[in-house]
Amino acid sequence: MAFDLEEQEQLDALKAFWSRWGKWLAGALGLAVAAYVGYQGWQYYQKQQSLAAAAVFERFEATLANGDLKAVKGAQATLAEAYPGSAYASRAALLAARVAFDKGDLAYAKQQLTWVAERSDEDALKALARLRLAAVLLDEQRYDAALAELARERPASFDALFLDLKGDVLAARGDAKGARDAYQAALAKLAGESPNRQFIQTKLDALGA
């Protein structure tokens, strides 16, 4: 009898607890389930988007082999519009910019490089885009604009490349001292066995003492 009474008290306590907290617990459980399902759905969506972007990128690569700038532009536009946040879009833009530069379409090359510099989530790609953009601006003899790009923040691993190109810009502008300083700074950033050291040293020697 004592056992039955104790059991009844436990049941009453459980009923009281559930009466007070049951709806809240059910709601919390529902939210947890919804969050889990939503996360799984998002993961699936992201995977499908990545696979779709990869397929479009493969078609883009096929246009590169033909060297048809119009086709390259069309394929890149598809990637940029449909999958702007994908890594494929940024890489395709860099490649499209190179084709455009080789074909003499500097305006399109700059547009694609700027797109990567402003939209990519990868710091290395952004730095590479700014480096190439500065090179295009140098080709156009827009020295101040090129130097402005080279002054932007970048990963330390790009310092030597940025300083080397800065030396090229300053040399082209007629600032021999500034160019020497930039080349020397670039050399200081390079490892002793770097293959770029001799190339930069040659440019530095050409400027004289």
From TrEMBL:
Keyword Cell membrane carried by entry: yes
Gene Ontology molecular function: protein-containing complex binding
Parts of the chain that traverse the membrane: 21-39
Localization per record: Cell membrane
Membrane topology: Single-pass type II membrane protein
Keyword Mitochondrion: no
Entry GO terms, CC: plasma membrane
First-listed, main subcellular location of the protein, grouped into a coarse class: membrane
Domain Ancillary SecYEG translocon subunit/Cell division coordinator CpoB TPR: from-to ranges: 15-208
Entries under InterPro entries matching the protein: SecYEG/CpoB_TPR, TPR-like_helical_dom_sf, YfgM
Record key words, sorted: Cell membrane, Chaperone, Membrane, Transmembrane, Transmembrane helix
Superkingdom to which the source organism belongs: Bacteria
Pfam families: TPR_21
Cross-referenced PANTHER family: ANCILLARY SECYEG TRANSLOCON SUBUNIT, UPF0070 PROTEIN YFGM
UniProt family annotation: Belongs to the YfgM family.
Protein name, entry field: Ancillary SecYEG translocon subunit
Species of origin: Crenobacter luteus
